[in-house]
Amino acid sequence: MRRLRALVAVTLIAVSWTSAPGQTYRNFRDELDEIMTRAKLRIGPLRLLPKLQLQNLGYDDNVYFRNPEEGPVGDYTGSLSPEIRAYLLLGRSLILSFTENPEYLYFAKETHLRTFTNSYAPRIRLNLFNRFTLSGDYRFQKHLRRAFSEFSDLVSDTTKGNTTSFFYETPRGSSIGLSVVIDRFSYEDIVLPDREVLFSRSLNRKESTGNVEVYYPIFSESTFFAKVGSTRYEFDHPSSLWKNSRSVQASAGLRFPFMGRARGTISVGYKRFIPDSKERKIFSGLVADTDVDFRLGRFGLRFGLGRDNHFSYLEDVLYYVEDRVSSGLSFRLTRRFRLDYDIKYGALKYPEPFQVYAPGVGSLETARRDVHRTHSIGFAVRILRTTGIQLSYNIFERTSNVPGSDRKRNFFGLGLTQDF
Length: 420
Known about the structure:
The two termini are 26 Å apart. The protein has three helices and 23 strands.
């Protein structure tokens, strides 16, 4: 019985503290120590780290994300996503790992939306002479979701990719090295009686990125990082070859401890996106990907800032620029109960005017602007250590200067939270 309780506890409270493939670099010795400390569940030579995610279990009053005139459809929904990470350590110089992450998306009435997907990622890390680390991974990720803020439909998207890196590491924990990331993105087309959306034709592509990266530990377990790189974008469909482009980007910031009073990443930088087509507008300017969480006594403060350009699925549109800002406040009433409030704001700006069709209006040319707002209020009950059940009410609203593009969605439900 004691072993069973320990297994349940590990399953519920496990946090994805190791670096996900393709994300910021992690020092070999730090990752090895974390695996030996946290992956307590063992089967033979394998160390296991399970995790359970239960998300958006509740009622969605607009599952198809329709505008009011089209008649929104409500349904009860939820997703269950267990994950297992298996590690095989050979001495203190080789880490073999494998991540398996199936996901089941459930709808009570709209049964054709029920979907089972699976993602997995094998990975190898070799440390030579306590100085040089060679890492490589392959990843297959598949989801049914609204992959970008621009999407109104649930779309099946698949990513197949690999990352290879070579780093020099010092005994004090600093690192410098090279990484190469290659990803192939593919999307499912949607064909309905009244319309069709060819996501595959507009978005299927290959992205190849090379980076020079530097990491330097400062303060208490926090890390300063800087990254400079270049990316090549190549589209699959002949009608989308005009979207081929390249970019150069540089970013720097701080990565806070995975556990502690401050957690998350502050990252800001500069990006220059250059289309092959000379007629298309260049994007040049600030980019950011920042999300941090501070804990001060009974209060928890959250802040997020993001900016980047993304490829558009709209015909004859190359990209849009998305700005997002988010903030949140939590207050612990007791050791077991917590109140939460979050607000998110996002703006999508299309740099070039294009033709759109608006119901009741016809064809018009516009420089499209969309604004997204989300309010979320709820409370959480701690059930085990850092794990709790969170009950929340969310209001999402999108307004646009394109007639017929406004959307509104309410969701009431619960899920597991692992940041108590």
